[in-house]
Specification:
The complex is a heterodimer of chains A (about 290) and B (about 350). Chain A is mainly α and about 290 residues long. Helices cover about 75% and strands about 5% of the residues of chain A. Chain A contains twelve helices and two strands; from the N terminus they run H-H-H-H-E-E-H-H-H-H-H-H-H-H. A two-stranded antiparallel ribbon of chain A has the order 1-2. In chain A, a hairpin with a 2-residue loop joins strand 1 and strand 2 (about 130-135). Chain B is an all-alpha fold. In chain B, strands 1-2 form a two-stranded antiparallel sheet. In chain B, helix 4 runs antiparallel to helix 10. Chain B starts with 15 loop residues before the first helix and ends with a helix. The chains are: A mainly alpha (about 290), B mainly alpha (about 350). The interface of A and B includes residues 88 and 108 of A.
Chain lengths: ~290, ~350
């Protein structure tokens, strides 16, 4: 059981980072960003292309991957989200889903629907917890999460820009009155969301075999669930929610392994479990544990 | 000059070229399924069934203003119910379709009750979770879906040929178009538009929000159930993987590309999206194999182009043409209108 717990915590890191991007965008633009997982996917494919096809060093590939994620997010903001500023929010949601679909479509054309894999950023194994050997790559994910959490907390508490973003999410009109550009804030939140997505993609890339639509199919819904559980308006809630969803998934996996009959009845039990959590949370407390309003 | 003809009969006044064009379109629909061989006829029925499903999505997205990301579940439930009723319970075809419609109505009414509590973006997430949960759990019940090989849904003798089946689908589409057209002119239809424009104002006028919201979901589910049943009998074999999230996005694309809230636009958009793989396949000799994988990218690009630049969709682009064909003067200075606004005016005129 400990093993599944550790697996859950590690996958919770990726969910948390993706959820953090979702929450950031929600605070900035009041839209559920269905393209968030594709920001991660473009970073994975960039790393794949530069290291496996072009044989460039990992450092260059990583920088290019982070840039690719940010550029994609900025293009989404400029070409889709800003024109829909005054449209109904559900139409903006359809817009971001369109961006995700376009990205998947282009991945299909460029990289073909074949499974791809990349080597780990750092090889070797770290400590053994509950009989589960935690690879250095997974340790790196945990360290990255802590670094990002601390720097995000400092950014939003201590800097002018961070507080302007928070102010904008509370009252966009009042923020403009005090002289902060809402368009610039929107650009920065989307850029940060793209960066977070790209980091998540770079962290998970060595642990999976990926294909077009892989990230949206496997990461997006748990990340949304994490965001909803933590509260779509709470940045810290997103990271906590990610851990909760990761652990729930790990425990679900453990239960399925213990009861073969159950796993035969519901073949994709853990995925279904996440949806149940999402549905129940939306019905009982849509604003989440730490959220301020729904 | 005021037009003295009753609204429904104005089309009689159109001139000869208009009659010829309308007649040609009508003749194409009436003759095409009869003359082509079985595969094109089957593709044609798929396009017609997609148009039926498009109408269903349009009621939620176009009229009630609510995004549905779980429509593949309504359609899938309809398909499996119909297949189960015909193959396992050995009921006749019309009864199976009827039960599929009923089950579609009941399951979506449940979602409608949820919609009373959760709204907007959060409801969009609920439809997504509901749809995918149904896909992952319900569709893997062996008894209902026949497991991996799927459930058979053999058509009865009188519609066994693909051509005959296409005519049946067209008849049902025509009937549903008529129902949709009439519904929008009733108190119920106007109430839906009012709900979309401003819920609070609608409620303060004494509208029963619960009734209309659940009602919108029931109608959507009924039509989606019928569409699902027809989809099942088209291939005569239903398999669960056909009803994945990508299908839900396809439904959203065809309605948005066609034009939210426009009946004609939705039918054209749905048929276009349904035929897109066939069109791409036909240009393969010119551009090579790459066109086959372009399907998703083209659909998504059209979706984005529509919602950011032409929110009225194909309906808005074709508006001068359809106006002219329906006997109104050809608009010289066509101002793009949002579909919702146009509908509002129309319903005022009928009131």
């Amino acid at each position: 059981m400990g093993t599944f717990l550790v697996i859950g915590i590690v996958s919770g890191v990726i969910y948390g980072l993706t959820a953090l991007g979702l929450v950031l965008v929600y605070k900035g633009s009041r839209v559920f960003n269905f393209a968030q997982a594709e920001f991660a996917a473009i970073s994975m494919y960039t790393i794949y292309y530069l290291t496996e096809v072009r044989h460039l060093p990992y450092g260059i590939a990583l920088i290019a991957a982070l840039l690719a994620g940010v550029v994609m997010a900025l293009l989404t903001e400029r070409l889709v989200v800003r024109p829909l500023k005054n449209a109904p929010r559900s139409i903006a949601l359809v817009g971001t889903a369109g961006v995700a679909l376009l990205a998947i479509g282009l991945e299909l054309v460029v990289f073909k629907p074949e499974p791809r894999a990349v080597g780990p950023a750092i090889s070797g194994n770290g400590p053994q917890i509950f009989g589960y050997i935690v690879s250095n790559q997974k340790l790196l994910s945990l360290v990255a999460l802590i670094v990002i959490a601390v720097s995000a907390a400092l950014f939003f508490k201590k800097t002018y820009l961070g507080t302007a973003i928070l102010a904008n999410s509370q009252d966009a009109f009042a923020t403009r009155i005090i002289g902060a550009s809402t368009n610039r804030i929107s650009v920065i939140t989307w850029g940060l969301a793209g960066l977070l997505g790209a980091i998540a993609g770079a962290l998970i890339a060595p642990d999976v075999t990926f294909f077009p639509s892989f990230m949206t199919a496997t990461i997006l819904i748990p990340a949304f669930t994490a965001g909803i559980v933590g509260g779509m308006t709470s940045l810290g809630g997103a990271l906590v929610g990610g851990q909760i969803i990761g652990i729930v998934e790990g425990l679900g996996q453990y239960m399925l392994v213990q009861n073969p009959g159950l796993s035969r009845a519901i073949p994709e039990g853990t995925t279904a479990l996440v949806f149940v959590v999402l549905l129940v949370m939306l019905l009982i407390r849509p604003k989440g544990i730490f959220g301020s309003e729904a | 000059m005021p037009n003295t003809m009753p609204r429904g009969l104005r089309w009689i006044q159109i001139n000869l070229p208009q009659k010829l064009i309308l007649g040609a379109i009508l003749a194409f629909f009436l003759i095409y399924p009869g003359v082509v061989k079985s595969l094109p006829a089957s593709r044609f029925s798929q396009a017609i069934i997609y148009a039926i499903i498009g109408l269903s999505v349009n009621i939620l997205m176009g009229y009630a203003g609510q995004v549905s990301l779980g429509h593949q579940a309504f359609v899938g439930i309809g398909a499996f119910t119909a297949a189960y009723m015909v193959t396992v319970k050995e009921l006749p075809f019309p009864l199976a379709v009827l039960i599929a419609a009923l089950v579609g109505a009941v399951t979506s009414a449940m979602l409608g009750l949820v919609a009373l509590r959760v709204q907007g973006l959060y409801l969009a997430l609920v439809t997504l979770a509901y749809g995918t949960l149904a896909e992952r759990s319900l569709f893997s019940i062996q008894a209902l879906t026949g497991g991996g090989s799927g459930q058979a849904a053999i058509r009865p003798g009188y519609i066994a040929s693909d051509g005959a089946y296409a005519y049946l689908c067209m008849f049902i589409l025509a009937a549903l178009l008529f129902v949709d057209w009439r519904m929008l002119r009733t108190k119920f239809g106007r109430a839906l538009i009012a709900l979309k424009n401003n819920e609070q104002v609608a409620a303060s006028f004494g509208m029963n929000l619960m009734f209309y919201k659940v009602g919108a979901f029931v109608i959507t589910g009924t039509i989606a159930g019928i569409g699902g049943a027809l989809l099942a009998f088209r291939t005569e074999q239903v398999v669960a993987p056909d009803f994945d999230f990508a299908l839900a996005l396809t439904f959203v694309i065809m309605v948005v590309v066609g034009g939210l809230g426009s009946r004609t636009g939705v039918v054209i958009g749905s048929m276009f999206v349904s035929y897109l793989p066939t069109i791409l396949d036909s240009v393969r000799p010119i551009f090579g194999d790459i066109v086959l994988s372009l399907n998703i990218a083209i659909g998504a690009a059209l979706l984005l182009l529509n919602i950011t630049r032409f929110p009225g969709g194909l309906a808005q682009q074709l508006h001068p043409l359809t106006e002219w064909l329906s006997g109104k003067p050809f608009p010289k200075h066509h101002k793009p209108t949002k579909p919702g606004r146009k509908k509002k005016k129309a319903s005022h005129g009928a009131a």
